Amino acid sequence: MTTETTTEATEKTGTRADAAGEQRPPAEARYADELAKLAAWDAERGAELPPGWRLSPRAVRAFVVGDEQLGVSRKFYGDDPLVDRAVVALMGRQGLMLVGEPGTAKSMLSELLSAAVSGTSTLTVQGTAATTEDHVRYSWNYALLVSEGPTQRSLVPSPVMTGMRAGSLVRFEEITRCAPEIQDTLVSILSEKQLMVPELGPDAREAARPGFNVIATANLKDRGVHEMSAALKRRFSFETVAPVRDRDFEIELVERQLAAELGAPGDRPAVPRDVLEVLVTVFQELRSGTTRDGAPVKRPETVMSTAEAVNVAVAASLEARYLGDGRVTAAEVARQVAGVALKGDEEDARRLRHYVDNVVRERARKDKGWKAFFDAAEVLWR
Amino acid sequence: MTTDTQGPRARAAIAGTNATEGRRIGPDGAGLDGAELDRAELDRADVTGTDATADAAAPERGLRAVWELAPDRLRRAAAAVEELRERGVHLAPVRHHSPACAVAVRRAIEELRPATVLIEGPEEYTRLLPELLHEDTRPPVALLSLPEGHGSPGGASFYPLASFSPEWVALRTASETGAVIRFCDRPSAERDRPTTAPATAVAPGDGGIPAPTAERHDAPDPAPAVGPDGGPAIGPETPAEHDPFARTLMSERYLAHSRSVAALARRLGCRDHDELWDHLFETRSPAGLADWRTTFDDVFAWAALSRLDYEDEVLAADGSLDREARMSARAAEAAGPVLVVTGAFHTLAIAEALAGLPEGEPVRGRWPEGGYGPQATGDAWLIRYDHERLDGLRGYGAGMPSPGFYERLHAAGGPGIATQVLVDVARAAGERGHQVSTPQVAAAAVAASRLADLRMRPHPGRTDVLDAITSCFVTDDGGIGPERPLGLAIAEVFGGREVGRVPSGAAVPPLVRDARERVRAVGLDIDATVPRTARLDARRTPAHRARRQVLALLDLLDCGFGRQVTGPDHVAGRGLGLIGEEWEYCWTPVVEARLVELSHLGATVEAAAVTVLRQAEEGLREAGAQAAADGAATLVARAAVVGLTAHLPRLVDLLARTLDTDRDLGSVVAGARRLLGLWRSRVELGLVAAPDGPDDTTWDERPASALPGGTTRPDEPGGRSPADELLALVAQALATAAYLVADVGRVGPDDEEAAVASVLELRALARDANRAWGGDDAARPPTGHGPGVRNVAAGQEPASAVARELARLRDDEGAAPAVRGALLAVGAVDGDVPDDVLVARVRGALRPGADPALAVRFLGGVLRAAPDLLLHTPELFDAVDGAIRDLTPDAFLAVLPDLRRGFTWLRPTETHRLAERVAERTGSRAADVDVRVRIDENDLAAGLAVERELAAVLARDGLAHWSGGHS
């Protein structure tokens, strides 16, 4: 495992350098070499590709869950059957809906699948309350529209339309943040696989080429999300992405993400294993509402996702580097948890105080790491 | 993943890409090469001594590849299997409840037509062959063994057989071909004393057995031992001792925990060893499976992987080696050709022992000098079983999960059952309100087969179908959810609903037969597989009374047959006024198994029930006097409810004696309450001579004096009905209670609440008891504060002693204040205490200068007993109001929590009326007083502190009147 991690870290550092200038290149750029390997593997086997796909289903799966023999790294952890189901769902007529709490790597999974299946993960609609039908269908270049009238040249296709033309996967992030009527624009696109453009004439339409499909991600329980219509629901296969439950595994995930965000441990203050343990334990216990010994804990409303844990670790590391003595301790973690994870919610702060009083206080007596966390929290969270 | 690019990787293609069957080609052109086994993986699995090179061309048989590169030991064993075949000894390694193995076993027997078929299973089961082979026997059934002496409950072990179990198929096929059938495993009686085998089997100085082995056997507490893959299990097993199904003879702990199997599963992208098995075997075509030599070789290889993960010491300690010794010895002595059907985990050892290989020494060394002799005998029974119990998913570890799925697989004769299963799940989900459309089913069918392609299986397996359901039937973020309609539908279809049948003449332990007859005799349905509901009116209908009695009897035996849903619970003393009652019951295999297990308790249901009662009595005696009266009364109630009236005198005697020693008023009162409840239900419980014709009188319409024997003088001996006995006991209990009343006054503050509760309970009991004795208000409804204790003719009724003692306690200044307060209040309610006395006493208790804590405890007692007095008696209100106003702020704060609690006894409407009264007094509005304030203690404390400070500031500035009148 150790060697694997190191190679991957180097690999990532390498690609980062290649794509200089971009903060975060898309998956198809970051993992270009792996995608090439898998394509070669498909060719070598003579594997049958579904229409419009760049890789065979098996290669797509290998891209996501890794294959040691082929030198493909594992990128998604925790639920391999889910990946199988997702790959198969994308071959069907229905779209793929990834649902789950924030920070369960839904978006990452959708990015990886798009990169592997279509070679691009950038055909993305980001759902917000301000998303309009134009973002899903098409809009116009108004200068051209005024001068030329409605023509192909003056038409500005949406990512969805581009995906239909190219036969690519299209990602629709956070679809439930859009108003239901905007969401429903997808209904006809998904069922008829075509888009009428009446402005160009009564018969003008864009037909989806093979390979087109939609991966949507949604959060059904968060605040400020909309309902999804039954008609739309019927056009998607639902997959629930669950939070990571295994502590060691989550620690590993956080470590990897840290390396991805801040570079290899050499270039930055290292976050010691025991500090990560404190961090991940805090997150897991607050997320599940019970301590590892089974004692109940008050669950904050804020989602204590792995992604948030990574944010805390990153912030703690930055704090140690620029404001501290370069060593990351549980004290930095405690300070950052309050700010990064709790988002200033007073009720949640009370729940966290309760957690500190009931759980951390006891642990602080026996464990240095927890003591540092407790001391910092004591001062800050009062 | 192609072979050519793998370099030194081994192709242990135990998935069986083989010549006979042809390559199974996946859609991507790959065969089942997914089953390639990493060499490193094998190394990790403690396989040593391998020197083979990896790249094996497509092997003749799947298994061969393993042997080529695997350790010498496996290769030699493979050769041994081959050699044994030539000698006419055919080993058939199986996984229990595997349809794939069943197909292979059938083919093998049909082709070989062996003279003898040996089946892993305790030898004494051979005696049950006629019943097993009876044409009326329908799986699922189970063979049941009880531990020696049938002593400890939960010690039963089961040997389940489904229609798709290889063992079952072997039995039936062998019987068709006329083979001699024998079970060949260690008798189940021996599994409880594993020490004997090595002692007798091991020759002195035999180097074959590691020394620690014998020691471990002698250890008093051997590690929890479960028979590896399917072997009849040895020794104590998995937890949940109360659950008879925690012990199954076909446990798979070893396979589930094998590191090699786990590594292989990971390698092939299977989530666990069950999926791995499906991947390797269950998705094969019937034609492929019918090549039984290949199939068995592959199963052998699969199990050998996990076998090598365990040291001989472990296998010796759990008895595996002993059992393998017997099985191999039986195979050696059987008339050939012989087919030996065993769990695949044992095949390696058996082959090595039979072939005389050095590795076989630990097993062969256990062969006794003179052989094992004639087949062991012992008690065992054939009982019906059901899929639910068979389902490994339910945590019993009984082999493969989802018997419903594999039943279909077996019945269909081939692996293409995905669509059928999907349709059934959709229908079952629809019945539960989760509608699944036809397009969804079609999409799921497509998804299942694509998943199978993706996972390189020729047909969708169990997990593929489940994943397809997850993908296509779920339309929200809740997943399948075991409690949701879809989850239940899956449980129904995958779990199966089959219930087996045993021939009517099958030997059943007498207790089971008796119970069955009793249940049938009273007209309860014994054949239903889902719970039925019986609505009974035991008071009016004698037939219902009989039914209730049988249900209660079996309930006493705790055999899971029925459970009361509604209606009076005479044991707990709840719902006694109810006329009808409902029971839910179902004669499941568990019931039968539990009865078999209890069969050592007695030959009839009654006898067993008596034993259970006696055991409970013993328990009570051992527990000593603490709160024993209620326990004894509970026993009396249980005996009465199940109609064991013949045993009542003894129990009554026990209770009478416990009453003498029990020092706990609460227990005595509760016991008496139970007895009185029984007495009230005496007619429906059959505790009196049966009345003529339909009996529709209720207890309070039947004067006690009309009962046979009369009850006005309950202490008169001789000729009394059980009901009279009960009433006599109530009298005795009341006397005891009266004696104990004085103690209640001496409790500390912490026990005050319980003391008040038992005093109030005692007062209510005394009132009800008076009615039983024909007090002059016998016809009054039992609710409301009617005159009760007061009306008892002085000295005549047992309850009068109680009334006297209660009154004495009430007037005892030294008694606990809450108890006094409560007694004063009920006295006032009952009319024993005039209002002016009440008010004077309350004033006295709350007078200025009295300890506020004591005062509030007193007030708490009053409010607990009769909160409405505060509303009905204006003077009392004034007294309380004044006393509270006079408290200093600090004292008020100190007693506030108790005060608040005291007022919670008021009903909401009463609270509101009180609030109106307070509002009137303070000049505010009731709505402002009677509000629910959502603050916690800290907020309250902070608020009060602020208020006090403010008041102090105002007072300093000469504005004290601003702060609103207090103090």
Top keywords for this entry?
heterodimer, A: 382 residues, alpha/beta, Rossmann fold, 2 domains, two-stranded antiparallel sheet, 18 helices, globular, disordered N terminus, B: 967 residues, mainly alpha, four-stranded parallel beta sheet, three-stranded antiparallel beta sheet, 42 helices, DUF5682 (chain B), AAA family ATPase (chain A), CbbQ/NirQ/NorQ/GpvN (chain A), P-loop_NTPase (chain A), ATPase_dyneun-rel_AAA (chain A)
SSE map:
The complex is a heterodimer of chains A (382) and B (967).
Chain A: H1 2-18, H2 27-30, H3 32-45, H4 57-65, H5 80-91, E1 95-99, H6 106-118, E2 124-126, H7 133-136, E3 138-140, H8 142-148, E4 155-157, H9 159-166, E5 169-173, H10 180-183, H11 185-192, E6 194-196, E7 205-207, E8 213-218, H12 230-234, E9 236-240, H13 247-262, H14 273-288, H15 306-322, H16 330-342, H17 346-364, H18 368-380
Parallel strand pairs in A: 1-8, 1-9, 2-5, 5-8
Antiparallel strand pairs in A: 3-4, 6-7
Chain B: H1 39-44, H2 62-69, H3 72-86, E1 89-94, H4 99-112, E2 116-122, H5 129-132, E3 141-145, E4 157-161, H6 166-177, E5 180-185, H7 196-201, H8 211-218, H9 253-257, H10 259-267, H11 273-282, H12 286-290, H13 292-307, H14 312-317, H15 320-333, E6 338-343, H16 344-355, H17 361-364, E7 380-384, H18 387-390, H19 403-412, H20 418-431, H21 438-454, H22 462-473, H23 485-495, H24 510-521, E8 532-536, H25 542-556, E9 562-566, E10 581-585, H26 589-598, H27 605-623, H28 628-641, H29 648-661, H30 665-680, H31 722-744, H32 752-772, H33 798-810, H34 817-830, H35 835-845, H36 852-865, H37 869-872, H38 874-886, H39 889-903, H40 908-922, H41 926-929, H42 937-956
Parallel strand pairs in B: 1-6, 2-5, 2-6
Antiparallel strand pairs in B: 3-4, 3-7, 8-10, 9-10
Helix pairs in contact in B: 2-3, 2-13, 3-16, 4-6, 4-13, 13-16, 15-16, 19-23, 20-21, 20-22, 20-23, 21-22, 27-28, 28-29, 28-30, 29-31, 30-31, 30-32, 31-32, 31-33, 32-33, 32-34, 33-34, 34-35, 34-36, 35-38, 36-39
